[in-house]
Amino acid sequence: MSRDDTSLAKNVLGVPGIVFLVLAAVAPLTGMIVIAAIGIAVGNGGGMVAAFLLATVVLLLFAVGYAQMSRVLTSAGGFYAFVVKGLGRTPGLVAGFVAMLGYNCFVAGAIGTSGFFTSTAIDDVFGVKLDWLFWSALSVALVLLLSRRGIAVSAKVLGVSLILEVAILLIMDFSVLFRHGFSFAAFSPSVVFQGAGGLALLFAANAFIGFEATALFGEEAKDPKRTIPRATYIAIGFIGVFAAFTTWAVVSAIGAEQAQDVAAAHLSSGDLVLSVAQEYLGGPLTKVMLLLLVVSLFAALLALHNSATRYLYALGRVGVLPRLLGKTSPRNGAPRYASIVQLVFGSLVALAFRLAGLDPVADLTASMTGFGTLGILTLQLFAAVAILVYFRRTRDRRLVKTLIAPGLGAVGLGLIVTLAILNFPTLAGSSNGVVPHLPWLLLVVALAGLALAGWLRRFRPSVYAALETDMEREPSNVVGQ
């Protein structure tokens, strides 16, 4: 079996491992407490249940073409590799830059979110009050230790945390179902079409951020041409059904017709779901839920770090970024330096916000996670277009799988990205400072990618050519444990 110091581990992730990595990045508990609650308040109230189902349909349509592309291409470059394959090297490099900045900003925001909520939960449950930066630093140290143990270890840790956070929400859901019953008024036209349906769809799509990471682990997967498509369908289906079911429970508990008003009253405190838990689970289990929120946020940080690291690794491996970032551990195939660089970047951003006296949620999380979300949504749209172009260029005759379904998915993603740009302060949860202007950073990133592509084509043609030839790397070339 071949070995080199630029290869990832071989055959270490099955469908469950990849699903755990993806769902942990999605962070179901965090998604319900934060994203679903905001969607109910600023979107269409009780109609948020239908918004989750619509977002699921859009992404499953996209996943049809995505699954076919996954059978053609296996690469740690994820969607950046898909764009190279479908649209060419220059658009691919632009997508790579968007992915790299989007994921790294998301991790920086997650560092602040994890530190803040951990500080709040520990203080509330145990009465120990420490600065959020301490908990952020501890989270970063633990992420570094786990990521350097290899992706298989991360998958196991994330699997445990995922089971725990899903379990506590399901206990709450069924408590509402058995004690109160679910209200079908949530599906009545008067509820579904009230308020801002576009914002509801935007926040519903936001709850899926992270599913696209399945492609990033292709080189580390067992039988990736089957594992990656299956993991993608399972991840999207689970997120959509679980989010809709839990949101239905919350909406039923507070009343579908007045859900928007009730959620709006809880918006500033962010405790809508916790208030429902208090009523239907009681004080002790609500405290457990609060502690599991900390676990959920840490799991999301670890999973997002693994995703961000693989974009740095992929761009380092081909020579776009320093090749040192493309080095891996000969022992377990974990990216050695990309992991450190990624966490240093996120930590320095968080530290800068702290030294400036800015709020970890209203400023750090809002700006970094907000832009990260927009970047990843844009990346998904790039990939959707690339998949369509690739299969039309190769004259694929499976029109339903490679044109109609993914085409409808691309239209849906285009609508979501447009909504994200037009409503960015609402998506980010803040209109402070430069936050409303952050979408312009996408244009800056795109121009930087175009400029670098032109420079590489002229002065470093071998690196420019490697953007495409590296996409041909097969899983058989990657190192074993």
Automatic annotation (TrEMBL):
Keywords: Cell membrane, Membrane, Transmembrane, Transmembrane helix. It comes from Amycolatopsis lurida NRRL 2430. The keyword DNA damage does not apply. The chain crosses the membrane at residues 12-42, 48-69, 90-112, 132-151, 158-178, 198-218, 230-251, 288-313, 334-356, 368-391, 403-425, 437-456. Its main location: membrane. GO terms for molecular function: transmembrane transporter activity. This is Amino acid permease. It is a multi-pass membrane protein. The keyword Transmembrane helix applies. InterPro entries: AA/rel_permease1, APC_superfamily. It is found in: Cell membrane. GO terms for cellular component: plasma membrane.
